[in-house]
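Have a close read of this protein, sequence plus structure tokens, and explain what the tokens say about the fold. Thanks in advance:
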Amino acid sequence: MFAQFDVFEAKDRFVKHGLTTGNDDRFVRAWWETRGQSWLPFAKGGSHSPYYVDQQLVLKWHTEGAELRAGYTTKSIPGTRMDGSTYFGLAGLTWPLRARSFSPQVLSRGGSFSARGYCAFFAEENLLPSLALTNSKAFDYIFKVALGRFGYPEFIVGILQVLPWPDLAADASEEMGRLAYRSWSLKRNLDTIDETSHAFLLPAALRARLGDYDPPSIETELADIQAEIDDIAFDLYGFSDADRAAALGPSASTEEDNSNGAEDADESEDDDGAEAIDQTDGLLSWAAGVAFGRLDWRLATGEREAPPEPDPFDPLPAKSPGMLPHDAEPFHAHSGILVDDQGHPNDLARLIEEVLARVEAPVPADVRRWLQRDFFPLHLKQYSKSRRKAPIYWPISTSSGSYTLWLYYPSLTDQTLFTAVNDFIEPKLSQVGQDVAALRTKGSARSRDDEKSFEALQGLELELIELRDTLLAIAQTYRPNQDDGVQITASPLWQLFRHKPWQKVLKDTWTKLEKGDYDWAHLAMAYWPDRVRGKCETDKSLAIAHDLEHLYVEPEPKPTKARGRKKDG
């Protein structure tokens, strides 16, 4: 077989492995964290997902990656490699390095790829047929035979380059392209209920309103398509009946220790992206997103039609089709802050209920209890990818959690904390102060219930004062920049989050920020400008990060030792 066909890397086919940042905290984000400019979709391994996967990571690539390139050329960022960057932006196929089977996925135009997310490139007309062929059982079997391992091997570039590649006749190429397109479309359709996906439309509880969504039927059709692709691939490679049985039967992987040499979460099959969540939780989370102005309720009411499906290799959109378009009015206008405060115009629990009523969806009995106890842990889990935890709705609370403001991360500015104090906490303090004064004037006439309310209101008043003073102290030097990412941007507020695991993450992040580990961040410049500017004098990459390249001083070239003539001995 190897002598009968061309090798894979020939003519218009070639394979590349991508770059290594040397510092993912600095150069990699979840796509919803950044302001979008200067960040490329970044294929970085990920989960086993044939044909389609949503690229949820992005790579910092301002001015063609100047900051990263400087770290590479000056060796100021250890471990950095720039391999494959010449091919960024091209459409191709990418795959996780280690998986149970070879499972290439579409890499859209405008993307980038890492050393753990290899990429193959083809002529435009051969992209979809090649997506089908490389996902076939025949190709997977040949690849594993060449690797000499069947149990979760590493599908490396060097072996792929020399694998046999059959010549697809026009009719076979057209059919394989059609089947690959349909598989991609079906897989993407399953992703339209995931809030964090570029394909998101509506939550599972409402998705059927747009039609064309029946997961069991989709899975059945995918299996049928895969069988068709496998039959064509077996014929192309000339597999005998015995060969087909071997490729389709149980492999040696069942006898191997699949955990041996397993990759980290963001580079292996253990990273399955966002886990399926309860439909009610998903519906409430979506309603909260509508209340914040992120998501569009009109898809659920029919007031807005879903946009047409993109082509597989189209660049990923800046917003998913389920997000509110830039020119649309939000469900509820606000300043980027909502509140858990019954009776307040910006009360998040009430807004969630209003959203559900507007779309004629069932309203659960106790939305406020869900908001206070369940929402943030769920949201943190939903909006985490690989090692990145990137929640965008931030509950900051009094010490007992009796009063909570919800900040919307994409809307954060250097005025947000002042707004929180002036428009929310001060009016609440005034209201509570009046209630305390009214009960105090009752004196001995206070009932037992009055005494309980009096004590609770006094405690709330003290906590609100503490929250106000803390926010005002932070606000003086707080200069958020979304390109720093969620964790760094939230870290100055760590003590105001009541979710203990998240609080610990932020406290650790703040400690590192204070220490100087994240001096590339805009927030570090805001807090410690002298320290950061001093580092820019000797670190070109850091100087570029802060647009202070004029401060960088090139080091003197090291003198080269003259080589003397070797004496005759």
Notes: The radius of gyration is 28 Å.
